[in-house]
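Quarterly update, task 2.4: magnesium ion-bound model.
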Amino acid sequence: MGNESFDADLTRSAHGQIAKERLYHWLLFFCAALTVFVTVSIVVTLAVDAVAFFRQVDALSFFTGTEWESSRGTFGVLPLVTATLVVTAVSAIVAIPIGTAAAVYLSEYASDRMRSVLKPALEILAGIPTVVYGYLALVYLTPWLRKGGLDLSMFNLLSASIMVGIMIIPMVSSISEDAMSAVPDSLREAGYGLGATKFEVSTGVVIPAAVSGIFSSYILALSRAIGETMIVVMAGGMQARMLDLTNPFANLFNSGQTMTAAMVHAVTSDATGGTPEFYSMFAIGLTLFFVTFSMNLLSNRIAARYREEYQ
Amino acid sequence: MTRDTPLETDGGDPRADGSGTAVADSAAQTDSSDESLLDSSFDVEDRSHASEDTDAIVEARDIDVYYGDEQALQSVDVAIPEKRVTAMIGPSGCGKSTFLRSINRMNDLIDAARVEGELLFDGKNVYDDDVDPVALRRKIGMVFQSPNPFPKSIYDNVAYGLEVQGKTDDVDEKVHRALERAALLDEVEDQLDESGLELSGGQQQRLCIARAIAPDPEVLLMDEPASALDPVATSKVEDLIEELAEDYTVVIVTHNMQQAARISDKTAVFLTGGELVEFDDTAKIFENPESQRVEDYITGKFG
Ligand SMILES: Nc1ncnc2c1ncn2[C@@H]1O[C@H](COP(=O)(O)OP(=O)(O)O)[C@@H](O)[C@H]1O
Ligand SMILES: [Mg+2]
């Protein structure tokens, strides 16, 4: 800026500055408002269309029905919900231990060099399109598991959910690792100073201190698993099957249809607008929305509780 | 650091006096105490029991420590007597913490750090290949410069060392005893399952001391344990250290010289460059040091 007439400069630039600041303010506000607007419109649209569905189909039988055969007009959502739960549970069993262990390795054990190789590799894993995972599950994983002696159908929830688990590992590991790396070294030193081994420091000091971040990573990853579509459509099949609690392996080894897969089905089938088959998509969508929404709420509650306890 | 101002070199680190608002005050105080330093009226406590020497429990022989290419300690020789308080003083950056950390091999945790020479603990060189640093640290406890309680309950903080060291019998009793010895039990008795982070700074540091002594180590290393504390908390910690010396060997780093004079039996003076310039009875160091540089440092003429 010039050093000419200080006074004139002072007022002129102030005018320009204030106008610019105002512009930034509104620009930023507009973007923030837009995201809220989009979210609200999505929920409203879902709700309106779901209402159209529930005019034609009894809500109670929708939420408690154990049979889903949309082409025949049977709309019981439980087979879809339980298939989603099965996929989520199995993917959690795969992703949580591996993802957490990878995070501990990266944060506590890996040398700087190793970390500089592994972290980008994990990020690449996170960037692979899900259609590739779906393909891998169908074309490689299912045949391998069959060769390994499992009596799997061509389409089955086991392969699909293992692959979903693999897909969400980077999410668990990278968010958990961030949380663990944020634990101050002074706490590690306190642990070592008391004669703890590296493993004891990792599990007894670092993980507890990072627990709220680690937990958030689980919830985020599981929300992702619940909403995952492509892998379960490609490898899990399209046949709705109610969870048989006495024999859950039957559900794993055979094809199943998750909520997301059923929505894809509703769009891709010949069902045209106006039919309950088509509108069922929105009812499922709304259900899905509430499931993930309550999971996020839960995770916030849990994170807040641990934060209180630990900070 | 501005080591050429007398304020810093006479050990009157403003931080030692607690809050930032007290800095001006403490500057005034240290100024006047500076005068008294020149008259060499150091308040060296008479610790008569300590007059006779005990055997060395920790002995450094020609220790050099490097961080990468930089040398932080130069051929340090020192024999630390058992069940006495040994103070390490010197301007900041002269290697006091480095020396302390080389005793219990905490330097192992810093990739760039390299230790040469012999460091004997109970006659055994701790840098021998067959020494497990984890086992070593179970015998040598440590208290750090700023309080670092775990984000766990007060009880779990103190019990942690017992747990990892497998000393799992009478945990309750040991936890209570450690808190009592750390002069904290009265204040926290009915909040043992509340988080250690909810305590005040001075209480947190006493919690860390309780945590360090609970597994009953032989040596307690303290790296400026009072530097983040207000004067009241500092004097509590000092009283505590004198008591602890009845059962433990205490090695304390401080750059508060009055503190060293008050609580220690032996004093080691490190000066810039990582040299241990003089090591002797505290009274001797503060009243009649051999080295001119030590005298200059103690009287605030140089840093
Ligand atoms: N982790 C480290 N990496 C590199 N240099 C270090 C490290 N810690 C200390 N040093 C250097 O070693 C010297 C001594 O430091 P330190 O032992 O902390 O001194 P003091 O405790 O007396 O203030 C300083 O020059 C400091 O910069
Ligand atoms: Mg230091």
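Highlight for this quarter: The first strand of chain A starts at residue 68 and ends at 69.
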